[in-house]
Amino acid sequence: MSGARGASGARGANGVRGASGVRGAGGGRRGGRWLKLSDRAIERLLMVVAFTSIAALLLITVFIFAGGLPVLVRTRVVGLVAGLRWAPTHGSFGILPMLLGSLLVTGGALAVGVPLSLLCAVFLSEVAPARVARLVKPAIEVLAGIPSVIYGFIGLIVLVPLIRTCLGGPGFSVLAAAVVLGVMILPTLTSISYDALRAVPDAYREGAAALGATRAQAIRMVLLPAARRGIVVAMILGLGRALGETMAVIMVAGNATMIPSSLLDPVRTLTTNIALELGYASGLHRDALFATGAVLFVMIMLLSLLAGFRPQRARR
Asked: SS3 for the chain, per residue?
């Protein structure tokens, strides 16, 4: 009797364990299927988001080039880019003065911003105590959040009269626009250059110290060459930022459609030309502004591609 009860108890226990094991295996398989389905759903969602971004870029490209196509067909690209006279109501669509103005203002902004940003990045990365760096770096990055109209307003109130008084001319000039843009791109240049310097392995610093190099020699001969690629990328991104700026340049550049002969002459850039005239333009005038935007679009895209380009030697 007791043996029978023991045997039946053992069978019952084995049966319960077997049933629970089957249920556990079934639950595990169901959980695995749900995980696979959720992974696939997330993968599809991310793919849709990625293709949406690409589609948006393609739509913007088609919209800009389709709007400027009539003028591009009529004047050709060379006639548009090399034309000296901008009088769209009279059939003249030359944007060379604005193109040169954009290049001059952007080059001046780099001449102002690059040395300052490099000095700031080197100071924060290699010279400043950690406590000072923690305070100064966020303060510089705050400059990136200030609206461009504020920079333009300060340039209009302070910088333009200062140039007019000290250097002559109307004050609204290439120089004023370059200084304002140089300050505006300072946070971008400083942050990327700082990150490039911090990415240099400490072994470089230790090796320079072991060879008897001073801190200045190590920075000039070891760290800056090692961080060269990141610094160049910072310059290219700052160049794109300055090239696309509109509001601050409108307020301090003078907006004259002529080729400036000096840094004290007024100037009009491609972006300010679009912003000033698009509100009332129609017909071929409007198409010419779209063609101007197409030229600017190509310049910005080339700069973006250049920033992402990595030579084979750098990869090795």
From this structure: CHHHHHHHHHHHHHHHHHHHHHHHHHHHHHHHHHHHHHHHHHHHHHHHHHHHHHHHHHHHHHHHHHHHHHHHHHHHHHHHHHCCCEEHHHCEECCHHHHHHHHHHHHHHHHHHHHHHHHHHHHHHHHCCHHHHHHHHHHHHHHHHCCHHHHHHHHHHHHHHHHHHHCCCCCCCHHHHHHHHHHHCHHHHHHHHHHHHHCCCHHHHHHHHHCCCCHHHHHHHHHHHHCHHHHHHHHHHHHHHHHHCCHHHHHHCECCCCCCCCCCCCECCHHHHHHHHCCCCCCHHHHHHHHHHHHHHHHHHHHHHHHHCCCHHHHC
